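Pasting as-is:
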Amino acid sequence: MSFLTDPVVALFMCLGLGYFIGQLRVGPVQLGGICGTLFVALALGQLGVRISPDLKKTAFALFIFALGFTAGPQFFANIRGGWRYGIFSIIEVVTVLLILAAAVAMFGFDAGTAAGLFAGSATESAVIGTAAEAISKLDLPDGDILQMQANIATAYSLTYLFGLIAIVIFTTQIAPLILKTDLRKEAQKLARALGSVDDEEEEEGLPVVVGRAFDVGPAAGQTVGDFERSRNWAVVLERVQRGSELLETAPEFPLERGDIVFVRGRRNAVIAVTDRLGKEVPVPQGTGFALATRDVVLVRRSVFGRQVRELRQMAAPDLQRGIFIPRIRRMGQNIPALSGTVLQEGDIVTLYGPEKAVARAAQELGNPLSPGDKADFIFLGLGVVVGLLIGHFSLKVGALELTLGSGGGALISGLIFGWLHMRDPRHGRLPNAAAEFAKDFGLAAFIAAIGLSAGPDAINLIKQYGVILPVLGLLLSFVPALVSLLVGSKLMKIETPILLGIIAGQHCSTPTISALVSQSGNSIPVIGYTVTYAISNVLLPLMGPVVVAISRALTS
């Protein structure tokens, strides 16, 4: 047993076993690595092992800065123009706070238990850190502070699973029943309205953009431009083989009987043109030419709020042909790259086509992402330090003193530095893989430290409140979702797949959006999810000190 009480061994034991447990799945519900880590830490904490508070603070600062960094571009885009969906994040915060205040008044929860209940039912682990820091600044004996911080972890562990189950079942099962709708059919209908010609998403593993060769057939007599325009520019006739010659094309190029045309476009669009051309023929060897793929961060203001199909209309004539967008990423999630998809600031758009044309288009749209996988530690270090400085500022509201703390300060700093990096990707690079590791490891190490210190006191809280906390976890998860469903469907008339994605996002629940995408058969729900996820990922952690202040005011 002495081996397990070594802090380093205990930390990695919590991470390894915790993430193993987190892989367990019951239907659409998966516990997740963070909650699994907390369960293992609570168990090992019974042995009396502790992790240095400095490591705990460092891990949380790393996590919360990386969280803000990745959310920054979309957060600032949404607070300027996305509040039609962003209002649902406000509904989440206000509803949960009101129910929580009633629960505190009824059951007399201390600040730690209230904060853990808030974090678990909203499935937002970052609240644990901001609330724990706020409690550490209370004018109370050290023993009371440690007890409250331990109660955060215990209450979180008792309510997280129930909060997760409630939101997954509500969005995938209960909400469609309330609205009397078939989620899959609605998602397919909306996808077609956005420009999809397929009922299903692109099959996994197949290329989105393809090239094929056809006999010109019935298209003989048209110009290349006329043919491409008739297909809404969804395909391009890149080259024509006429006899033994291979000819470059332009919009005014005339098609003649006997020509072999080389068609490139989205796979479903190329398949759809077969009735306008002759029979398909093998692509001869040596007729290809260099094609390039480049990721671009959208920063050009004139394209914000525009549909993908409008980009071609806005482009110069030499950029209107041959360039395709096979993928769009928003907040780390792939959203449907359809002609009707609306673009936002900070979207990462993948351009595909001839190398020179792609390079010119990338410069027109925004900032090309430079290749490489090295993190800019100068930017990272300065960003965290700036966040810690911001956290020292406080605001006096009556008898309450509100402060962001180091966690809230690092979050705000991450948002700003993430936005700055989007404006100029040459500086402050934090690759997606590095950012995800910083978030996952930072939060897991922090949660492990909290759980280990809470271990000895967990049993007491469980005995004190028993089934009350799990029931409240269900309630605090279910009610905000129900309110948002009624507001979104009855008042705002939002399409069901997008509305359910919005509800998953306001709850910051990745398992929920995964279940929704699976049930919808396409990624349409992600369109709503990214907006509220970006905003809730900022608002919910900032509520940690607010929950502590409310609890103290109601129980003092």
